Amino acid sequence: MSVLTAGVDLAAEPPRTAVAWLDWSPGRAHLTRLDLGADDATCLEAMLTADKTGIDCPLGWPAPFIDFITAHRAGTVRVPPGVPGLTWRRALTHRLTDHVVQARTGLRPLSPSADRIGHTTMRCAALLAALAGQGHPVDRRGTGAVVEVYPAACLKLWSLPHQGYKRTRNLTSLGTLVDRLRDSAPWLDLGSYEARCRVSDDALDAVICALAARAAALGRTTTPSPEESPTAATEGWIALPTIPLTDLAP
């Protein structure tokens, strides 16, 4: 029996959004569909049809940031006495999971409250609400239909190039990454979409998201501890693979 995972490399608008579907059957994982310029309907389709969908986007905002905005609206903001501005503001920019990922991988995820990815996070929030509206409540800790993933961290943990392959000027590096991925996962069949992965880092990131979703579906990704779980339930949790890429082989 085959299993379907999907990967969504989400951007604020469709032109930079890619969605990949991987069909896992005995002996191989086949890339059956790869959409570039994916609109909300396509993203939602992936979440509804796949057994597990990995999304490259924060599933929430830092809890201290939400508290700060709420206090600002009420006119009750209190600045910690004696704490430099940059120091207390930093507490508002990154989530618990972002700090955990940085400690584990050395990579610092973008801030959903103080970076351009905030626009993408807003789009993601609307998609998750639409998913819940169709009877699929979302657990932002990743135990449900969707899980938050981070392609760069996955690549690094899988000993693959994780930097320098973005944008048109780095197509050679992107092609090298595809070669390395195929060598490391000979069971991965990119089919007719391989050429697309060699010219679009969005397309390849969507494939990486679908691979990470497979690791999550197998229960082989990081999960929040009991102490971290309440915060992760609102902020979201980045699931990092805890097994080598080779161990994803069907």
UniProtKB/TrEMBL annotation:
One Pfam family matching this protein: DUF429
Name assigned to this protein: DUF429 domain-containing protein
